[in-house]
Amino acid sequence: MLMRFVWLLLLMSMAPTVKAGSVQDTFGSGVLGVLWGTSLTDVAGVYPQGDHVFAVTPGCRAYWVKDGQMFLGIPRERSGVLFGFDKQNHVAIASVAFEFERKDQLRTTLTGLLGVPSLDTRSTQKAQYGWRSADGMAVNVTEFGDGPQRLVWLTVSMPGYKAVKDGC
Predict the structure, then answer these.
(1) What is the pLDDT of residue 16?
(2) Strands (E), 19-79
(3) Residues 18, 132, 112, 36: is their CA dihedral positive or negative?
(4) Burial class for 30, CB neighbours closer than 10 Å (0-12, 13-18, 19+)
């Protein structure tokens, strides 16, 4: 009986150390069929129905697409994606929108893929959590909004990415 208990304790103590996939493994090649470093012209070729918009990306440009594609096995029927560009107009960040009702499904999926978030903050208006790879690639989720205007953003950025905020 004691031996079974010891084995059970050993098994349980090892469970949290099982390595989930890394940020790089999950998002290293890109988002929704667009590879990191893809040119603005090529993104517009993949998603011709998109719109060019100004943004706080280093290139001060982004491309908004209401794609509605499933992502990470989660439906996104009425949602879009915003691709942000660096100064050379290559994809460096992507923000994928999800309906607010999918927030728990997204968190469960990401925790299964990446482990427990390293960042996790909550307030009455907003919740944020995320992960960062050793090379600096970042994944952040923001849940926010009020009433029917609630939304969840999953943002993935390349290593070293910084928004320029006031530079555009």
Answers:
(1) 35
(2) 30-31, 34-35, 51-54, 61-65
(3) negative
(4) middle
* CA distances (Å), origin 103, targets 81, 88, 109, 127: 16, 33, 10, 10
What is the three-class DSSP state of 2? helix
Element at 57 (helix H, strand E): none
- Per cent of the chain over pLDDT 90 is 54
Tens digit of each residue's pLDDT (9 = 90 or more) over 58-70: 888 899 999 889 9
Structure tokens at 93: 């960040």
Q: Could you report the per-residue pLDDT of 122-147, keeping only the tens digit for each?
A: 777 788 999 999 888 999 999 988 77
Instruction: Find how far residue 29's CA is from the centre of its chain.
Output: 13
**What is the helix (H) or strand (E) element at residue 163, kind and residue range?**
none
